[in-house]
Every structure is written in structure tokens, then in C-alpha cells.
Amino acid sequence: MKIAVVGATGLVGTKMLNVLEERNFPVTELIPVASEKSVGKTITFKGKEFKVVSMKDAIAAKPAIALFSAGGTTSTEWAPEFAKHGITVIDNSSAWRMDPTKKLVVPEVNAHVLSAEDKIIANPNCSTIQMVVVLKPLHDKYKINRVVVSTYQSVTGTGVKAVEQLMNERKGVNGEMAYPYPIDLNLLPQIDVFMDNGYTKEEMKMVNETKKIMEDSSIRLTATAVRVPVMGGHSESVNIEFENDFDLDEVKSILKDSAGVVLQDDIANKVYPMPINAHEKNEVFVGRLRRDESNPKTLNCWIVSDNLRKGAATNAVQIAEYLLKRGFVSKD
User: Fold this and answer.
1) Helix (H/G/I), strand (E/B), else coil: 159
2) Distance between start and end Cα atoms, the chain
3) Which of the residues 85, 112, 126, 139 is marked catalytic?
4) What distance in Å separates the CA atoms of residue 52 and residue 105, rounded to the nearest whole number?
5) What is residue 156's predicted lDDT score, i.e. its pLDDT?
6) Can you give the residue ranges of every domain in the chain?
7) Is 139 a catalytic residue?
């Protein structure tokens, strides 16, 4: 298969290449795409070198699938152009997520909504992805009424500039700032811009995307998103109120058997999910499972996942794998 990766030189684009290689996706020809200043440079994939090309050259090469991770503006302009030429776009930006004509997909949760006609498919927000992978099997069993989530999100979610800011601060070096404040030995209760209701865009993404992916607008959700000086992945403290009561051992059993979920819940031996252990893993890790003693039929849990992998690159590649398995895209 010819596969294009748009934004191939960025943090997520690079991770997409890694995941494609690791999962042995049947790439016969890689078409790396980046900004004009990167055109002509080479990247290595499976031991071979490939030249970075322009958007127009990528379309002319007619890949079967284009994995986009180049920002919302680029996706808004170019995803329809790729789709117009019969190329299936899996887009990692926020550009198409809430478009009612586009599917928003986490394969473990709602891959069934996909069809061969879908030419632009949205990859959800990183913090939403890891949460719904845990929520869905519990919703199926107990029906979720309300979710309260606080996130502890890695600087890698912002990009290379934020990683450099953190590393510079660690070394005492003055450099370019990705954030309005220091991030080392600090945390920032703001991710993305503030909206009229006082929530940030990131927080409202979690609210709206969860309802769309779970196919249930009745779920009430409130979020507080926080940036922390961490590299390995995003963490979330999640409080889930159910319609029906639950048995804690049954909850653990359900999660243990759920696709893409790893249960790490052994407090006697201090076993619980941490970003340092989730780093470079493709699964979603859940632990600290306990009944909320202040509210009936309510569960507390702690969810961790590598935001560049399951939160972005891995989820996109899994969508591509599903399309291929179902025959929705052609190998030719």
C-alpha cells in the first residue's frame, strides 16, 4: 500500500512512522509530506530513505491512505483535496472532529461506524481517547450518567517547543517559551484558549468528543485540563457516576478483559499506572479503582496513556488497520 504521512517530521508524524513500522503495516511505498521548507529532505523508514514531498506531489502519487498530523489549518485546506482524489484521510487535528458529516473514531469503542464511503476520518483528542477506552465497557454494563475528570497532561502534547522549554528550564538555560509561564516545578491549569463559559477549548473537546464517540449525548461530563512537567504520557483522575450499581471486582474483571486496556491495580504492592511506565506503550492503563464513598453508584479511577501513541499515532494507525481489514481501502 502507498501511505502518505502528512506532517512526517513533527512529534506525532514521527511517531506515526514508528508505529507503522512496529505493527508491520503493509506499506509498499511511503510518501512523507511536510512544510515547504522540509521538501527534499529525507527520512528513514524500514531502513530505506524517502524524500519529503509537497502536498500536490503527495496527491499525484495517489496513496490509499493519508495520515494527517499537521494542524487544523492544514487539514481544513488539504484533507478535502486528498479526499477528492479518492484518498482516505485519517486526521489527527481538531478540524473535523465535531463535523456531523465526519466519523470520530477510537477503534476499541466505535469502529463499527466506519464505512468505505468515509474519506475523512477524525482522530479524537489525546485525553479523550484514553478516557473513552476505559469508559465504554463500563457504560455498556452499568450506564454512565456523569463523569468528572481532571487531567495531568504531558508537555509532549504541546509539541517540540514545549519539550525544549522544559529541558531548558531544567538546565537553567534561557530559551524560547511555549507557555506563558515556566513549566518545570510548576503546572498550568490552562490547555488551549479559554472560551466564553470559562472552560478551555481542551476541556470542551473532552466533553463534546466523548458524547460523539460513545454515541450517547445524555452523558454529563465536566473537565479540568492541566499541563504538568511530564514527558511519558497523560494521566487522568476520573470520577464516574453510574445509573446502576456495580461490584468492584466485576469492574476490574470487565476492564481486565477489555481490548486495549491494561489493569494495574494492586495497591498492596504499590502497583498503579504512571506515565513513566506508559511511555512508548500503545495501551491504556487503569488503576486506583475504588468506590466513591461520598456518592452512591460512583467509581474513582486513574487512567494513563502515552499521548503520542494511543493518544494520537497508534489510534490513527489502528483506524487504518481496521479499514484495511474490512476492505474499505484497497491495497492496489
Assistant:
1) coil
2) 6
3) 126
4) 28
5) 96
6) 2-124+312-325, 127-306
7) no
Contact criterion met (CB below 8 Å) for 45 and 21: yes
Position 271, amino acid: V
Active site residue 301: no
Query: pLDDT value at position 37?
Result: 87
Contact between residue 126 and residue 159 where contact means Cβ atoms under 8 Å apart: no
In angstroms, the Cα distances linking 294 to 168, 189, 241, 285, 298 are: 43, 25, 11, 25, 9
Determine the residue type at 86. Answer: G
- CA atoms within 13 A of residue 162's CA, in its CB half-sphere: 21
Amino acid at 165: Q
The pLDDT value recorded for residue 36 is 85
DSSP 8-class letter at 121: E
Distance CA 205, CA 200 (A): 9
Q: Decide if 5 contacts 67 (C-beta within 8 A).
A: yes
- Give per-residue pLDDT as tens, 27-86: 999 999 998 888 999 999 999 999 999 999 999 999 999 999 999 999 999 999 999 999
Residue 2 in 3-state DSSP? strand
Q: Judge whether 223 and 149 are in contact, CB under 8 Å.
A: yes
| Set 139, 234, 279, 301: catalytic member | 234
In contact, 7 and 71? CB cutoff 8 Å: yes
pLDDT the model gives residue 273: 98
Quick one: fold of 2-124+312-325? Rossmann fold (3.40.50)
- The pLDDT value recorded for residue 132 is 98
Residues 65-89 as b/e (b if ≥16 CB within 10 A, e otherwise) read bbbbbbbeebbeebbeebbeeebbb
What pLDDT is attached to residue 35? 87
Dihedral sign for Cα atoms in the order 107, 56, 38, 75? negative
Coil/strand/helix, residue 113: helix
Tell how far CA 280 is from the center of its chain: 13
pTM here? 0.97
CB 230 within 8 A of CB 152: yes
Q: What integer pLDDT is reported at residue 332 of this predicted model?
A: 63
Residue numbers of the chain with a pLDDT score lower than 70: 332
| Gap between the Cα atoms of 43 and 10, Å rounded | 12
CATH class of the domain whose range is 127-306: alpha beta
